[in-house]
Automatic annotation (TrEMBL):
Protein's organism: Cupriavidus pauculus
The protein, known as: Abi family protein
Region annotated Disordered, chain positions: 25-50
Amino acid sequence: MQGSQAVVSFGHMRDDARRRIETGIVRRSDGAKNKCTEENESAKNESAKNERPHKVAFRFIGVVDVGGCWTPYRKSTAKICPTRVQAKSNAMSTLKQQHVAGAVRALSRARLSSYRSFFTALTDREAFGLYCWNESISQCVSRALAITEVVMRNQFHGALSRRYGTNGSATSRDWYLHLRLTKASEEAVKKMTHQRARVSGRWQLVARTPMPWPDDVVSKLTFGFWSHLLDAGHDTAGALIDWPSILVEVLPGHRYRNSAYWVARKNRDRLFARIDYCNSLRNRVAHLEPIWKAGPLLEEDRPRRNLTQSPVQRSPSNPAEAITRLHLSYNRILEMMRWFSPDMYSTYLVSESHHRFMSLNTPAGLDAYRMHGGHRRERPVEIGAFRRFRELKRELRRIGKRHGAAEVVHGERRLAVWTPLS
């Protein structure tokens, strides 16, 4: 990491506080004022006329623009948001020993045993902190998977609706009733489109009346349904499904944009393998399993009668390898998101969830959670306690390098929160 990304906002700062920051005046706690030289103050005021207040204020602590700006220091990414911030002080944690003891009893030592052995956690506090790290990582992965699942089913639904179906709108039709799906896929659809009813004294599956809207049916299909959808070879009329043309339309962000590539079954099998891989990650997160646990990484292919998947990477055996594997898995999710929707992919890359994952899935992020379990907080940084903005800048850099978070306050008023992102 070569810098720190920052997002700045001042919320409801009082006019006098904003003015003091803009003009370089910082009030000390003893009431004395420290002003810039008259020449510098004049230059700042002149430049401030056409700039928003937070741009002027935080230039002095290394932030040069809003949204995605880089500060000149290394090893921390910091974000400034409207919340809070406080003065020079040592770090403190809200996680007390009684909290740890209660959490360990609630989670059970058996559940934490894998964290103790794999990460060499020596205390209950470390084991619980690592458990919290896994939970935070899982939240980020879960959000990436959720967005990928939505764009994937929307792409398949739109492309197939334009070719098959009778009921619904031009972009949302009941195509699933016009394809010869596998037995498992057909049963998954019928759970939404049919119901059990007595017919001539016998229980049978009959179509619901009225038939559910196609959007409702598609939204309830599982992640795994979409990989096995590729197994459908014919429609109900017996005609071949033109998967090459459909996949070109479904995957606008894939590197291969010609239908000839998708004619080969091995290439469709690679798509099947990627969807299946992401589905297995989703199931691990949904079942609250440790996401850092992983078996051997297999080549992206589909096992068939005369073909087995070869391992390309062994199982992670230490924390560094676990972090590397998590990065690989996360990148596969993002790549699949880009295949289905380049726009959604570019939007996700600037999301807080993405930056949070990049921050957490590092040795520094792991060690920080090992110590404080995600409960660590710096005491608020009182902006009035610093004679110069240079001192405030130095203090915030120190916090960022220690992978900490801090509130910036002015008296009782919260100005911003400084948190590392990557």
